[in-house]
Specification:
Chain A: GO terms for molecular function: acetyl-CoA C-acyltransferase activity. The structure holds two protein chains of two kinds. By secondary structure, chain A is of the alpha/beta class. Chain A has helices spanning 26-40, 73-80, 95-109, 151-165, 174-184, 199-204, 232-236, 266-281, 299-307, 316-319, 338-342, 348-358; strands at residues 8-15, 50-53, 87-90, 114-121, 135-136, 207-210, 212-213, 223-231, 243-252, 290-293, 372-376, 383-390. Chain B has one domain. Classes of the chains: A alpha/beta, B mainly beta.
Chain lengths: 394, 146
């Protein structure tokens, strides 16, 4: 087991308003989320001395403007003018989960005391994913000429292969979309908080990139979420109950840049990240009381459940049936609604919900008797990024 | 069942670089050539700086037969890029060549209804000239389905 298990905790979380498109510059959303997280922890902004983010704009073919389409560490520094800032990083691999893990490392190293991590997501005007212009350079030269425009098709081809290899039916995914929406209807921060979704809605919705229909895709939104991390000792002096980090792991799974459609890597990426997390924490999938698994596209949940070891390869669509992922089921899943229902904020909201469930602070969505709370914060077909939070340090 | 109408589609034009030029030079001659490791014999696509199997940098390009199977596919219904709107719905496929297991090529399924795209179906390469310099490898169903 990891000697540093339960030595760092999440002590505050914050959300901006989540809107369909930009009503303010993105920096204002990020500031709203960071202020809320610091207030939730019961801290003053001047206490914050560490900053971390993953600032990527996932929409392709759009201009990057700091403060409008991304919110960099530099932008946040300029807004907050923190008097005691002593550490900061902007990660470029393994998504926002990597920024959280770097903040954990910085706290363990003693180079900061209260770190804020945020993820701000911009929904640009017009088409979200644009193919290259007249010319296709780099890896896109082998995909864009055939009408492959963004991650949607890359994920869709992999899902088709999974479905046909395992003789599965895409209609079974309705259970995931509907169950997650029921959770979102108890999450006032979610974009679809007040919008119900039925099985019929899912089955009748328009196809986007077969096998993905509209409700297999998270909805692009403008918004930000944030959390405050600190050492366990300091966390115990703050008002919210700490959510202790028992272990984490990460592992990139791209074999060659630009290659799409392979399913050979998702088991490798997801299982190597989760193996580190199980080994470091000492827990197994059977010990998990509640799970948040990244769902930018619905199929990522399948790859997560299988590669993290919750079920066998090819069985995930059956695993989620019969109430297993509902509040009183054996594995309540994406209890905040998931990206499918909160809107596209990438994996930090999954991490936040994992922490809230571990500390008993998930309000109407709280699952009973949670101690071990698992998070898979990215799509394992691209990278594994996993965490375990616990209520009781050990 | 209707065929996807590609006649109004303007495709982005590939720009060869130092790794990929031999692939496009061969395609212009109507030959499918893939990067191969001289050390371990592994084929790979897209081209890369090193052999992804044995990390050798001793790489070359070799012609391969243009037959393979559909490894994965998607049917596009959403006109994200207006240049492809006229072809919707259309099949974007990923092909694994018989001679190069693990090397995956993207393409469209031409000359067949998009509903014919299925994992495991036999396909063969055809060449589609985009302009004087660039010819695109594409795929159609093989005459004899295994």
């Amino acid at each position: 087991m990891w000697e540093n298990r339960c030595k760092v905790a999440v002590s505050g979380v914050g959300f901006s308003t989540i809107t369909r498109s930009a009503e303010m510059p993105l920096a204002a959303y990020a500031l709203q989320a960071v202020k809320a997280a610091v207030a939730d922890a019961g801290l003053d902004m001047a206490d914050i001395d560490g900053l971390a983010t993953y600032a990527e704009l996932p929409a392709t073919g759009h201009t990057i403007v700091d403060g409008i389409s991304i919110v960099s560490v530099n932008c946040m520094m300029a807004m907050l003018k923190l008097p005691n800032l002593s550490w900061h990083v902007q990660v470029d691999t393994v998504n926002i989960g990597g920024a959280v893990q770097q903040a954990v490392n910085a706290l363990l190293a003693g180079v900061c005391t209260y770190a804020v991590v945020w993820r701000a997501m911009h929904n640009p005007r017009g088409t979200y994913q644009n193919l290259p212009g007249t010319y296709a350079q780099g890896p896109a030269q082998f995909t864009a000429p055939y009408g492959f425009g963004g991650p949607g098709q890359g994920m869709a081809v992999a899902y088709t292969r999974w479905l046909e290899r395992h003789n599965q039916k895409r209609e079974k995914m309705a259970t995931l979309a509907v169950t997650q929406r029921q959770y979102a209807n108890k999450n006032p921060h979610a974009y679809f908080y007040k919008t119900p979704l039925t099985r019929e809605d899912y089955l009748n919705s328009r196809m986007v990139a077969y096998p993905f229909c509209l409700y297999d895709c998270d909805i692009p939104v403008q918004g930000a979420v944030a959390l405050v991390l600190t050492t366990a000792e300091r966390a115990r002096d703050l008002k919210p109950r700490p959510a202790y980090i028992a272990g984490y792991g990460q592992r990139l799974a791209f074999e060659v840049a630009g290659r799409i459609g392979s399913l050979s890597s998702y088991m490798a990426g997801g299982s190597s990240s989760s193996r580190l997390t199980w080994e470091r924490s000492g827990f197994t999938p059977q010990d998990v009381d509640v799970a948040q698994i990244y769902d930018g596209f619905s199929a990522s949940v399948i790859y997560g459940l299988e590669s993290y070891g919750f079920c066998k390869e090819g069985e995930a669509l059956d695993f989620i049936q019969d109430g297993r992922i509902e509040p009183d089921g054996a594995l309540p899943l994406n209890t905040f609604g998931g990206s499918l229902s909160t809107g596209r904020i990438h994996g930090l909201w999954h991490i936040i919900e994992g922490a809230l469930q571990a500390s008993g602070r998930a309000e109407d969505r709280q699952i009973k008797d949670v101690n071990v709370s698992f998070v898979g914060a990215s799509a394992p077909i691209v990278q594994g990024t996993t965490f375990i939070f616990v209520r009781e340090p050990y | 069942m209707t065929l996807s109408d590609w006649s109004q589609v303007t495709r982005p034009i590939p720009v060869p670089n130092e790794w990929t030029k031999p692939f496009w030079d061969a395609a212009k001659q109507g030959v499918l050539a893939l990067q191969r490791c001289r050390s371990c014999g592994h084929f790979q696509h897209p081209p890369y700086a090193t052999c992804v199997n044995c990390i050798s940098v001793d790489l070359t390009f070799e012609p391969v037969p243009g037959t393979g199977t559909i490894y994965a596919y998607s049917i596009m219904y959403h006109a994200g890029d207006k240049r492809f709107a006229a072809a919707i719905p259309y099949a974007s496929i990923i092909v694994e060549l018989d001679a190069a297991p693990g090397a995956l090529l993207a393409g469209n399924l031409l000359d067949a209804p998009y509903t014919e795209a299925k994992v495991g179906r036999r396909v063969e390469v055809v060449f589609q000239a985009l302009n004087e310099d660039i010819t695109l490898p594409q795929f159609r169903l093989a005459p004899n389905q295994a």
